[in-house]
Amino acid sequence: MDGSPHQSDPLRRARLRWRARRGLLENDLIFERFFSRYEHDLSDADVGALTRLLELSDNDLMDLLLARKEPEGDLADADVARVLEMLRTV
């Protein structure tokens, strides 16, 4: 993690986990493994970056998760890159 304060609000983490449920099974599986591994270690910056990624369509998100594409525009920042790397390695 990046040394930022831990995201300690369990309700916010629960909402994020619910929002991560996707229409594509492949995305669901990646997010399940991600939350199993990292949920309690996420910082506020991580949660913010993850929220931004979850605003993407399932297919655009899948392309990023599988490294078929890299983040562009508003998503091309260090927080998103860090969370995306975490997602790609679970």
Automatic annotation (TrEMBL):
InterPro entries: SDH, SDH_sf, SdhE_FAD_assembly_factor. Signal peptide: none annotated. One of its GO terms (biological process) is succinate metabolic process. It comes from the Bacteria. It is found in: Cytoplasm. SUPFAM superfamilies: YgfY-like (SSF109910). Keywords: Chaperone, Cytoplasm. The keyword Endoplasmic reticulum does not apply. The keyword Electron transport does not apply. It holds the Pfam family Sdh5. Transmembrane segments: none annotated. GO terms for cellular component: cytoplasm. Its main location: cytoplasm. Belongs to the SdhE FAD assembly factor family. This is FAD assembly factor SdhE. The lineage of its organism: Bacteria, Pseudomonadati, Pseudomonadota, Betaproteobacteria, Burkholderiales.
